[in-house]
Amino acid sequence: MINLSVYPHPVIFFDGVCNVCTGTVQFVIRRDPKQYFRFASLQSDTGQQLLEELHLPKEEWGSFILWDRGRMYTKSTGVLRVAQKLSGLWPLLSVFLIIPPFIRDAVYDLVARNRYRWFGKKTSCWMPTPELEQLFLDKS
């Protein structure tokens, strides 16, 4: 198991069967030329370890989680903190951090509740290509 409290890279935890979530991971990878982020699905061993350590339900995969230097950022805050590190104009989205989280997260929650219905669901977790495997903590 990986000791996340000392892991040197921010880790994005995502729902590995959600089309929106895996699409977001692929979006981040294309805009992260310095390979700053690492990834793990919430269904993976590492994802399950994190959920257990945080006393979160191990079957609940409705949130985007950014784990960075021992701190957890979820929902819209996690997404906007990731945008801050991407190439291009994406860091400008961080201006939305001034909006109270309860407002930002209401929009996030609406999409999260409907993501399978609107965007579909995979029958198994998305697997990275061999070129991208080093960015993923495990492949379970």
Short description:
The protein has 140 residues and is an alpha+beta fold. 35% of the residues lie in helices and 11% in strands. It contains 4 helices and 4 strands, in the order βαβαββαα.
Explain how this protein is built.
The chain is an alpha+beta fold and about 140 residues long. It has 4 helices and 4 strands. Strands 2-1-3-4 form a 4-stranded mixed β-sheet, covered by helices on one side.
Task: Describe the protein's topology.
Layout: E1 11-14, H1 19-30, E2 38-41, H2 45-53, E3 65-68, E4 71-74, H3 75-83, H4 101-119
Which features does this protein show?
single chain, 140 residues, alpha+beta, 4-stranded mixed sheet, 4 helices
Secondary-structure element series:
EHEHEEHH
Described by strand count, sense and barrel closure, the largest sheet is: 4 strands, mixed
Mean pLDDT: 87
How much of the polypeptide forms β-strand, as a percent range? 5-15%
Please tally the β strands and state the result: 4
End-to-end Cα distance, whole Å, is: 13 Å
Question: How many H/I helices?
Answer: 4
What is the overall silhouette?
Answer: globular
